[in-house]
């Protein structure tokens, strides 16, 4: 079945499969109706506030709304989370888990799969009522190996997160702009962090860099960490 590339997305052929890199910091695998995200970090802001730090509220709601828009807009059958769904054990409190439970009930038919990341190891698996299938990395899915940590898996193209990759754009004089990006090199595609309250780094493996800005995904023809706008 041929499908149009979603608005602003960049279509790639990876391991013989068509995938779309989405400006919403996610990947769409149309043949399998699978939406892939990494590093959602639900409850991160709540965890910081529990320590007495004045950080914004509402990030859990925003992240879940963005997920809903993608699931509904793409008519996804499966959600694959490449680690760090929850930020910490402190995230398992009503102000985080109640919205997450309502989100799950609103998408009851969605097959949800979580590959454990380093934060999931500390936060604990999601409650059984959320009906997430939880697996360890690498988890093979067709020609792909779903992982949290970037790595090589023989015979598979790895989809991973963890690094929260970004690219630094340099303009005239002292203009600087950091943009989230996808990073692709041989046998590996690293997704940007999906979560709204996460940091990013330009320290990531070399390869092709696909930056996200102005509502679309761009192929950068230069360094994967730093680009000049002239």
Q: What does this entry look like structurally?
A:
Helices cover 18% and strands 32% of the residues. It is α/β, with parallel strands linked by helices. It has a single domain, classed as Purple Acid Phosphatase, chain A, domain 2 (4-Layer Sandwich), CATH 3.60.21. The strands form 2 sheets. Strands 8, 9, 10, 11, 12, 13, 14, 15 and 16 form a 9-stranded mixed sheet that branches. A 7-stranded mixed sheet has the order 1-2-3-4-5-6-7, with helices on one face. The longest helix is centred in the N-terminal third of the chain and has 16 residues, at 59-74.
The rough form would be described as globular
Q: Write the CATH fold name.
A: Purple Acid Phosphatase, chain A, domain 2
The main β sheet shows up as: 9 strands, mixed
Our Rg estimate from Cα atoms comes to 17 Å
Q: Can I get a quick summary?
A:
The chain contains 4 helices and 16 strands. It is α/β, with parallel strands linked by helices and 230 residues long. Helix 2 (59-74) runs parallel beside helix 3 (94-106).
Key attributes of the depicted protein:
230 residues, alpha/beta, Purple Acid Phosphatase, chain A, domain 2, 9-stranded mixed beta sheet, 7-stranded mixed beta sheet
SSE topology sketch:
Elements: E1 10-14, E2 17-22, E3 26-29, E4 34-37, H1 44-50, H2 59-74, E5 78-81, H3 94-106, E6 111-115, H4 118-123, E7 132-135, E8 139-141, E9 144-146, E10 157-160, E11 166-170, E12 176-185, E13 188-190, E14 208-213, E15 216-220, E16 226-228
Parallel strand pairs: 4-5, 5-6, 6-7, 9-10, 10-13, 11-16
Antiparallel strand pairs: 1-2, 2-3, 3-4, 8-9, 11-12, 12-13, 12-14, 14-15
Helix pairs in contact: 2-3
């Amino acid at each position: 079945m041929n499908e149009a590339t979603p608005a602003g997305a960049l279509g790639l052929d990876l391991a013989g499969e068509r995938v779309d890199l989405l400006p919403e910091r996610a990947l769409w695998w149309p043949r399998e109706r699978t939406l892939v995200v990494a590093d959602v970090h639900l409850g991160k802001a709540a965890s910081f506030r529990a320590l007495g730090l004045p950080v914004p509220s509402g990030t859990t709601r925003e992240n879940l709304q963005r997920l809903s828009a993608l699931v509904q807009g793409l008519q996804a059958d499966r959600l694959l989370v490449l680690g760090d769904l929850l930020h910490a054990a402190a995230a398992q409190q009503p102000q985080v888990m109640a919205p997450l439970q309502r989100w799950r009930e609103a998408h009851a038919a969605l097959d949800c799969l979580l590959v454990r990341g380093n934060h999931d190891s500390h936060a604990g698996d999601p409650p059984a009522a959320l009906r997430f299938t939880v697996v360890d990395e690498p988890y093979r899915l067709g020609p792909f190996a779903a992982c949290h940590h970037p790595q090589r898996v023989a015979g598979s193209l790895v989809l991973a997160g963890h690094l929260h990759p970004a690219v630094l754009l340099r303009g005239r004089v002292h203009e600087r702009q950091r943009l989230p990006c996808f990073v692709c090199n041989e046998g590996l595609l690293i997704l940007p962090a999906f979560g709204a309250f996460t940091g990013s780094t330009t320290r990531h493996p070399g390869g092709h860099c696909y930056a996200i800005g102005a509502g679309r995904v761009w192929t950068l023809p230069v360094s994967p960490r730093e680009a000049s706008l002239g």
